[in-house]
Amino acid sequence: VAGLGNYGLRGTRHSVGMEVLDQLARQLAVAEGWRVDKRCCADVALATAHGLELLLLKPRRFMNLNGLSVASAAEIYSLGPGDIYLVHDDMDKALGKVAIKLGGSARGHNGVQSCISALQSNEMTRLRIGIGRP
């Protein structure tokens, strides 16, 4: 599960994917387990939910390069595009509205496009978090 955003700009609407992962880590009692994985330039935490092993990932790159971290982690942890969930902001959705998108285009989102390009696939499931338009 990759939370897309701008690592150095925490707390902004554009980095809501990372905020969601922080909350998920708290709910799964692994918030203290974040560690830097220099191999993929990301913060990672391992968790278990409903019998599934999860790798939580927050890229340490800017949004337009998040895909490099996601693709590196996929290779390191032997994950295919269909195993990956991207959590990201969506300006076309009202603030707080949530939707799931199963593969397809990036719909103009640079972080998602970076992931599609780096993984050479658009099969990743996306959790789109509405941030509305400023």
From TrEMBL:
Keyword check for Signal: no
SUPFAM superfamilies given in the database record: Peptidyl-tRNA hydrolase-like
A Pfam family of this chain: Pept_tRNA_hydro
Keyword presence, tRNA-binding: yes
Gene3D superfamilies reported for this sequence: Peptidyl-tRNA hydrolase
Sorted UniProt keywords: Hydrolase, RNA-binding, tRNA-binding
GO molecular function: peptidyl-tRNA hydrolase activity; tRNA binding
CDD domains for the chain: PTH (cd00462)
Protein name: PTH hydrolase
Species of the source: Nesospiza acunhae
Gene: Ptrh1
